[in-house]
Design brief:
13 helices; Alpha/beta hydrolase family-domain-containing protein; alpha/beta; hydrolase; AB_hydrolase_1; Rossmann fold; 12 strands
């Protein structure tokens, strides 16, 4: 299952005409960039894993992950360790002008291969940026770099940057946002100065790929923490886990690009070529070449533990979650449906995991691959999500 996871104001008008989006987004967009201290005190799993300190090691890791005689996930559990540390998490809070939904916060968690820029595409943002779309719909939105990515801390890749630790960070961020102390407790790195007292009345969890898996883990562990969930790039279905990690073409991150990933240590891996990115995230005919270039430009490493630990947060029921939940996935998602999601899922079986949910929907985004925000019909998918939330009273 882990292997399936496989998202300055420009003044010159000429750049805008070329499709370069202004980071300020639509009129009225106000955002603040934050460094959020997140204290974590949790129990994590200590895994049986080989060291990955070169690309040769990485290729051998891929072989170990896929060889049928290799230990299964349960057999790789060696014990438990305590993770007690305060991590610096880089995030951005954006709030629209006062409106009927500005006190509903969407908290977005990205997946493997990206940082928070997955949600806020800078090329033709009116067509691709989920942040801009959410703001235009009246929602507030908080995006962040998961632990190990972007400008957030990058600790041990074998035990710490793992699924259950990431779930705990998401739980703490959710509680901090609900308390109204997200901004006031953080170091402000720039942006709007009038958002310190922002306190949402409701919180919707939004995830992509691994990010959706982390939301699923949060709903199972603390369902009452969230008022709704939008799970994109993920679907419980008969093909889940059928694709190996091999198509990523992983390399040791520091070796792949010493300048870009020089701060990543042992156990951090990244896709090797732009065309590995295409294979995993995009479907021919449903993306612009500039978006493939953009995806490659903003690519981010992940840790070996995130793959091996993924199964520990999936498949558990969320009896205390009482909000609406939507699964949105590309019709031709390669990683989760082996290239075609049609006829692979059972809505009744999925509903059993969310027995108290007020509404559940599965949406296959037509003609689209895994990278939903990078595909040409991105905004059409956003509309389906917003309509679902509105029908659910959010």
């Amino acid at each position: 299952m882990a292997s399936a996871l496989i998202v300055l104001v420009l003044a010159a008008a000429s750049l805008v005409k070329k499709g370069k989006a202004s980071p300020t987004g639509p009129p009225g967009r106000q955002c603040v960039q934050l460094e959020v201290p997140v204290p974590v005190d949790t129990t994590a799993i200590h895994w049986l894993q080989q060291k990955v300190e070169s690309t040769v090691d990485t290729v051998d890791w891929v072989d170990d992950m896929n060889r049928w005689t290799s230990p299964n996930t349960t057999s790789r559990i060696l014990g438990q360790i305590t993770v007690k540390e305060t991590f610096k998490i880089n995030g951005q809070l954006c709030v629209p002008p006062k409106g009927p939904r500005s006190d509903i916060l969407q908290l977005a968690t990205h997946g493997v291969g990206f940082d928070k820029r997955y949600w806020d595409v800078e090329i033709k943002s009116d067509k691709y940026s989920y942040v801009d779309a959410a703001l235009a719909e009246g929602y507030s939105i908080f995006t962040y770099d998961r632990l190990g990515t972007g400008a957030s801390d990058k600790p041990d890749a074998y035990d710490v940057v793992s699924a259950n630790v990431q779930v705990e960070i998401l739980r703490k961020l959710t509680a901090l946002a609900r308390s109204g102390k997200l901004v006031s407790s953080s170091k402000k790195l720039g942006g709007a100065s009038n958002l310190s007292s922002y306190k949402p009345k409701k919180i919707i969890q939004v995830g992509h790929s691994l990010g959706s898996a982390l939301v699923i883990g949060l709903l199972a562990a603390d369902g009452a923490s969230s008022d709704g969930a939008i799970l994109t790039g993920f679907l419980y279905n008969s093909q889940l886990g059928g694709v190996s990690v091999a198509p990523w073409g992983f390399e040791f991150a520091k070796e792949n690009d010493p300048k870009k990933f020089g701060d990543r240590g042992s156990g951090y891996i990244v896709q090797s070529t732009k065309y590995n990115t295409q294979l995993v995230f995009l479907k021919k005919g449903a993306f612009e070449p500039a978006l493939l270039d953009y995806a490659w430009k903003i690519r981010q490493p992940n840790t070996v533990a995130e793959f091996i630990s993924l199964g520990t947060v999936l498949g558990q029921p969320a009896p205390d979650f009482k909000g609406p939940v939507q699964f949105t996935i590309g019709e031709y998602d390669y990683g989760f449906c082996r290239g075609d999601c049609k006829g692979t899922y059972n809505t009744t079986a999925i509903k059993e995991l969310y027995p108290a949910s007020t509404a559940l929907q599965v949406h296959l985004q037509p003609g689209t691959g895994h990278g939903l925000t990078l595909s040409t019909n991105a905004t059409a998918g956003y509309k389906v999500t917003f309509d679902f939330l509105h029908d659910a009273g959010l």
